[in-house]
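Hey, can you fold this one?
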Amino acid sequence: MTGTSSTAAPFGPEWSASLRRGSDSELRGWVDLALRLCDEADQLALRWFRREVVVTSKPDRTFVTEADTAIEQLLRSRLADAHPDHGIVGEEFGVSQAEAGVRWYLDPIDGTHNFMRGVPLFATLMAVERDGEMQAAVISAPALRERWYGWRGGGAWAVGRADAGPRRLRVSAVSDLVDAHVLHGSTRDIAASGEAPGFAELLAEAWRDRGFGDFWGHTLVAEGAAEAMLDVGLAAWDAAAPLLIVEEAGGRVTDLLGRRAVDGGTFLASNGVLHEALVGRLSRP
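Sure. Predicted structure:
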């Protein structure tokens, strides 16, 4: 999804379902495929986790491990076999078949720095876009033994080691910032970006804040455990899967200026009812 829409965009499960571009069975089929591929990706990730892994620097001075590249190569190969007409937007190997009507967004390891240091907060992110709208997504965190997934009109779901079966996700109904649990990425990066001049004021007003960065903060919003998650420096493959899951859980996702997009570089996920207030606070000098 590369376009934007009005800051007054609606939200909620019915609105999210209205964005469906295909049958329920087709979209659920994409989710099932992604879940199967994540079974393989999880095994690869855990093979290197908390063990010696080769790390190199990319031109943008971020790091990539041999696990990142191996997982993306695996996913690309499997997707080429299953859907040779689909395009791919991947973190490590770029875009293929850019003009395809259906494209898969791949982040082989979201939270690479965590992975490198033995912190279990990392995940493989997969999302499927059709004609500019995300349609299905899976987030798989093997070290946590947790997964989150969803598809348009089918809801957002999670399953983990403590669950007897999949559980439906719903955002919270908290409607006042003083009662809000606000999550965020690096405070240093957010301050340095200049994209959120009211960030410190927001944290001072909120009930509680924590720096649960990367994918996990977004899933906590979808689960109703927090009211907002904001971050900067995101690429489309970082944002695609969380966007679908938060929206199907009833929440709202935009950049920090209130524009709905996955390629805006900043990301704000909320329970929806607080979204306008959050955007307003963050933009206040």
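The two ends are 30 Å apart (CA to CA). Let me know if you want another pass with a different chain boundary.
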